[in-house]
Amino acid sequence: MILAGIDIGTNTLRLLVAKAGPDSFQELYSDRRITRLGQDLDRTGLISDAAADRSIAALIDFKKHIQRYSTIQTSAVGTSALRNASNSDRFIAEVKQRTSVELFVISGEEEARLSLIGVAQALRGPGYPGKNDPLESSFVIDIGGGSTEIIMTRKGFAPVCMSLPLGAVYLTERFIKNDPPSSAEREQLGRAVRNELEKHSAVLRQDGASILIGTAGTITTLAAIDLGVAAYDPFKINRHEMARDAVDRIVHDLGQRTLSERRRMAGLEHGREDIILAGSIIVQALMERYGFGNILVSDWGLREGIVMDLYEKVLKGNTRVSSSG
Q1: Which of 154, 227, 231, 301 has a 20 to 30 A CA-CA distance from 220?
Q2: Domains along the chain with CATH numbers
Q3: 23-71, pLDDT tens digit by residue?
Q4: What pTM was estimated for this model as a whole?
């Protein structure tokens, strides 16, 4: 069956149209648009009219592609920005009116669960060197514009999913005022991340996890910079293993550059140059706190998890979180 998933994030909107079956998953079309839905939301508590218009324009275009592939069901989910905005209902209603897409806001824990489904699909199997299941004992991170989801997996136990208020957009807006950022700004941002991790130290523990896995835009962008790719190539990004000293080097480099200089960096997606430093500092702090020397990158995450979860719901006749294609 042909299904579509839409991830409506604080910074980026992502679309995936895929053909799913019992033992198959084939991407038919994918797209992503940086619309910065959560711009100024941390300060105002509201989704601005301009941010809403940018996002709805992207969704209108997404809808054309969904119809082109005769999709039978679409699942559209909103994350941190829509969880936090006091005018989310207005935005959701306008999306429904102008696109006929029914949008549901999910919790941070549900976001983490769906991200893990997508990561598992990308990393499990004989193609991963040395292990058939890297998620048997892992620490999975998904750094978004408005929040960071952390999933801890252990053999024989259900995954532990948490959502922390650490987002690349919000942290940038709170702490970065200069271009390039001052050393004081960088230190204040890093301290805020470390303090937030400390708040959750009773639950968030490394506990012998054999591998750190990262997904979503900050981490795939770091991988693209590390590889020096001129154009984003998911086949090169997926399963790329990045060393901690490479992350440290990139964070230092980003911190010294102006926005104009960052735009010229190979691998850095246009529209992400202002928030990539904050997202990278989150990665750096997590690696430092939990003692990981490397991070394995997954090009798949929430968007793919949305579609795979929808497939299971369609099979069971439960499609509450979806609208017709």
Answers
A1: 154
A2: 2-107+303-324 (3.30.420.40), 110-301 (3.30.420.150)
A3: 888 999 999 999 999 999 999 999 999 999 999 999 999 999 999 999 9
A4: 0.90
